[in-house]
Amino acid sequence: MQTLQNYLYQISGTLLVPTLVMLLGMAAWVVLLIGGMLREGLRRTAVRRCLRQARQDRGQAMRHLSDCPHGLPARFIALDAAHPGEREKALEDLENSVAAGLSKLTWITRIAPMLGLMGTLIPLGPALTGLASGDMKMLSGNLVVAFTATVIGVLIGCAAYTMNTVRRNWYDRDMSDLEHILSTPSAPP
Prior knowledge:
Shape: elongated
Helix content: over 70%
Distance between the termini: 73 Å
């Protein structure tokens, strides 16, 4: 039994560094995603204006969508050019692309707190060993790592969840407008 416990302890101990590295990597990734979302947020006014113009002037809807240099209208126009005459396919590809982008945020939302929990539990073994042996330096060092990992994991999860919610709202609204614009017979091919 003692041998099995020692193996489990060794395996657990070797997971601490990869867990902390993954947490730091996710933190960096989330910072980049926040920057991208801020940039996208600054461009929202232009995207909404293009979609509003396309809804109001259905005879020139594709021209108004083509005038939009970024956002879902620009991505739709690029996909439409790749599939000439197949607007439904372009719209489906855009929906799939949006879903794939949002799924990354969902993944981060779920995985980061789990890694934070792992980063908490793994150092607690050595911390308890330090407590039992009276080594306060070992105890405090491991507790700092443990609680910091929890905070970072939860913070990453909160940021990813917030970005996912905001972007989902943006994309749902834009996709609804695109579908409405393209479903009307006034929009020329």
